[in-house]
Design brief:
Family: Belongs to the glycosyl hydrolase 13 family.
Pfam family, one: CBM_48
Number of strands: 29
Largest sheet: 8 strands, parallel, barrel
GO molecular function: amylo-alpha-1,6-glucosidase activity
Strand content: 15-25%
Organism: Streptomyces avermitilis (strain ATCC 31267 / DSM 46492 / JCM 5070 / NBRC 14893 / NCIMB 12804 / NRRL 8165 / MA-4680)
Structural class: alpha/beta
InterPro entries: GH, GH13_cat_dom, GlgX_Isoamylase_N_E_set, Glyco_hydro_13_N, Glyco_hydro_b, Glycogen_debranch_GlgX, Ig-like_fold, Ig_E-set
Distance between the termini: 81 Å
CATH topology of the largest domain: TIM Barrel
CATH superfamily of the largest domain: Glycosidases
CATH class of the largest domain: Alpha Beta
Low-confidence stretches: 1-29
Number of helices: 18
Shape: elongated
CATH architecture of the largest domain: Alpha-Beta Barrel
Number of domains: 3
Mean pLDDT: 93
Length: 749
């Protein structure tokens, strides 16, 4: 088109043809309206639906919606039969439409219709035929099924290249979930937050549904729910392991993508948020008409009572509305230009997330939405921290990632948020989006450099051990700046995205056929080694080697300086059958298989994991609060950290650059910086860890004085039964044989 006017003329012509082709009943699609209740002016704050006592002691609900640029807003109330009552909100304060409706009680379902221009070429996509979810809804009732009626444009328009410009006037209300008015009456007076220091934390990433779905100790009606995770049987496993925090995959209300629904699949992981205040209704056992809020709170209380913090994986970088061809569910219909980053061609969305859209966090009202949501989950839902999906997208100013961006600045000064745990996934898919090590001191980060180095070492792919040395000792090359500490690094070998730990040693290639995308989805860079056979095998030599590699990986993770993160089921040998992108597999592929505990080999792996975590909790030298200096602090020349070759000699600069499969790491418990709560210097045992990834045994000379007089074996991963390993003593200077592909941990005497 040569001009916007010509484009608009074509749009009107096409829209008129489309309207003429539809029966009037389809265009209207509405039940006869019931009498509207009175609406009083109410207040513009707080945003959302808040049940309260109004003038003259009358109870009701105050509704407030930011809708910049809108021409009118209708509040839509739904009764038990689904009948809709429309109430115009006529009060407008600073672009917030608001009103108090007497008699609207908790449990009432509602939504909005927002009126304005339909002009996609300028980014305006208002369409009052579409019922919109309140961005501040505290609970959501119903599922998103995504029929054509929920799209603001004519999805099946013959000329697909302009389909997003043709408005669809069919009513979406029968096909979309509704917000639910919730009564906030909980002051958390009986709750006691664990407040575990970062350095003492051990994180356990889990999926509410997948962790509990097949657990035999959880009543069947509670499996897959918040109540299931709160059940003593679930908490017993977490406490037995010794983890200090659960990191829950997204529990904000989310929607399933259309391409999955058409294949009979569902979004399992939940990285497709549409309600930033609402606990996902699909995980509630008690009901979805507001009961999910109380159930979530009871889950948090139960975990807190067990000493376990709750961290939420949150997705504020994009929403389930996708791009210009996506559905109109909430923000797109409230103010598309205000909520989303658009390209210079305003029909299109700036996509730094790979999901079709990116929230425009620079906008004050978008920033307010995010920070209001975060504070709500802390103050009213009791959570202890957040892991931010694709956090680099949130740190972008107009285009580039900016560590002085409004989002990071607001978090840094917020009196609530700056005191909780904040974890960044420090990348997005846009240009310049990889930002590992760059987030400011308040933040910790998922350290994928750690993941890569440890995987490569144990599969024999590291050219030397320089990178491994940095990762084992806290990644000072990434984080020793600006007052950051070793616990800025969240160390992980596996996460929800990618192979499980067992699959990492059982598959070299992804096997994602079940996802229905021709095995094209998922990463091809797995850095995996299958130990000699692809997939499951009856070869006991391969199976034994795989179990040893699992012990090596877990031991390395839990001995490393930084904050370790485990993935639910890895300690049991859970497999996804080689699927490294199981985001759409809500079935046995993704669920934790608790029957594995009945097998001695996998039960032994769980016991070793618990023993290593207990060792970590018992020894402050393994969870340092400051980086190693590598310098001697006493006349005998003993340093807080030293590295040794198999000859028992300290590594030289030349050794670091030479090919090697063995690394000795000495951690001095005598030189731990800092004091305890009473001001007493912290002193601990010293340890020598020998990591050997070679395929043959190696002779290792144990360093003599001043490093040690004798050594005692604590862990030997070459042994299936760890009960036989501890206690074996060796004198300093002795030569010990470290088995092929094994970790030997010795306590210094």
């Amino acid at each position: 088109m040569s001009s916007a006017a010509e484009q608009e003329a074509v749009q009107e012509e096409r829209a008129g043809e489309e309207h003429a082709a539809r029966p009037a009943a389809v265009l209207n699609g509405r039940r006869p309206a019931a009498p509207a209740p009175p609406v009083w002016p109410g207040a513009p704050t707080p945003l959302g639906a808040r049940f309260r006592t109004g003038p003259d002691g009358v109870t009701g609900t105050n509704f407030a919606l930011w809708a910049g640029g809108a021409e009118a807003v209708e509040l839509c109330l739904f009764d038990e039969t689904g009948a809709e009552i429309r109430v115009p909100l006529t009060e407008l304060t600073h672009e917030i439409w608001h009103g108090f409706v007497p008699g609207v009680l908790p449990g009432r379902r509602y939504g909005y219709r927002v009126h304005g221009r339909w002009d996609p070429w300028t980014g305006a996509r208002w369409n009052p035929a579409k019922l919109l979810l309140d961005p501040y809804a505290r609970a959501v009732d119903g599922d998103f099924s995504l029929p054509p009626e929920v799209y603001g444009h004519v999805r099946d328009w013959p000329q697909q290249q302009v389909a997003d410009t043709v408005r669809d006037d069919r009513d979406s209300a029968p096909y979309v979930p509704k917000g639910v008015v919730v009564h906030d009456d909980d002051d958390w007076a009986d709750d006691h937050r664990p407040k575990t220091p970062w350095a003492d934390s051990v994180i356990y990433e889990l999926h509410v549904r997948g962790f509990t779905k097949t657990h035999p100790g959880i009543p069947e009606e509670l499996r897959g729910t918040y109540a299931g995770l709160a059940h003593p049987a679930a908490i017993e496993h977490l406490v037995g392991l010794g983890v200090t925090a659960v990191e829950l995959l997204p529990v904000h209300q989310f929607a399933h993508e259309d391409h999955l629904l058409r294949k009979g699949l569902r979004n399992y992981w939940g990285y497709n948020s549409i309600g930033y205040f609402a606990p996902h209704a699909g995980y509630a056992a008690a009901g979805t008409n507001g009961q999910q809020v109380g159930e979530f709170k009871r889950m948090v209380r139960a975990l807190h009572a067990a000493g376990i913090e709750v961290i939420l994986d949150v997705v504020y970088n994009h929403t389930a509305e996708a791009g210009e061809l996506g559905p109109t569910l909430s923000l797109k219909g409230i103010d598309n230009r205000g909520y989303y980053r658009l390209q210079p061609d305003a029909r299109r969305y700036a996509d730094y997330t790979g999901c079709g859209n990116t929230l425009h966090v620079v906008q004050p009202h978008v920033l307010r939405l995010i920070t209001d949501s975060l504070r709500y989950w802390v103050t009213e839902m009791g959570v202890d921290g957040f892991r931010f999906d694709l956090a680099a997208a949130l740190a972008r100013s107009m285009h580039d990632v900016d560590m002085l961006s409004p989002f990071l600045a607001v978090i840094a000064q917020d009196p609530v948020l700056r005191r909780v745990k904040l974890i960044a996934e420090p990348w997005d898919v846009g240009s310049g989006g990889y930002q590992v090590g760059a987030f400011p001191p308040l933040w910790t980060e998922w350290n994928d450099r750690y993941r890569g180095a440890v995987r490569d070492f144990w599969r024999g792919a590291l050219p030397d051990v320089r990178d491994l040395g940095y990762r084992l000792s806290g990644s000072s090359d990434l984080y020793a700046w600006g007052g950051r500490r070793p616990y800025a690094s969240v160390n992980f070998v596996t996460a929800h995205d990618g192979f499980t730990l067992r699959d990492l040693v059982s598959y070299e290639r992804k096997h994602n056929e079940a996802n229905g995308e021709g095995n094209r989805d998922g990463s091809d860079d797995n850095r995996a080694w299958n130990c000699g056979a692809e997939g499951e095998t009856d070869d006991e030599r391969v199976r034994s080697l795989r179990r040893r590699q699992l012990r090596n990986l877990l031991t390395t993770l839990l001995l490393s300086t930084g904050v370790p993160m485990l993935v639910a089921g890895d300690e049991l040998g859970r497999t996804q059958r080689g699927n490294n992108n199981a985001y759409c597999q809500d079935n046995e592929i993704s669920w934790v298989d608790w029957e594995l505990l009945e097998e001695p080999g996998w039960r032994a792996l769980r016991d070793l994991t618990a023993r290593l975590i207990a060792l970590r909790h018992a020894h402050p030298v393994l969870r340092r609060r400051a980086f190693f200096s590598g310098r001697a602090h006493s006349a005998d020349g003993l340093r807080d950290l030293a590295w040794f070759t198999p000859r028992g000699a300290e590594m030289t600069e030349r050794d670091w650059y030479a090919p090697a499969a063995t690394l000795g790491m000495y951690l001095s418990g005598r030189d731990i910086p800092g004091r305890d709560a009473r001001g007493v210097p912290v002193v601990d045992d010293s340890f020598l860890a020998v990591l050997h990834a070679g395929h043959r045994p190696v002779s290792f000379v144990l360093p003599g004085p001043p490093w040690a007089e004798r050594y005692e074996v604590v862990v030997d991963t070459s042994r299936e039964d760890q009960a036989a390993a501890p206690g074996t003593a060796h004198r300093a200077g002795a030569t010990v044989t470290v088995a092929a592909r094994a970790v030997l941990l010795l306590r210094v005497g």
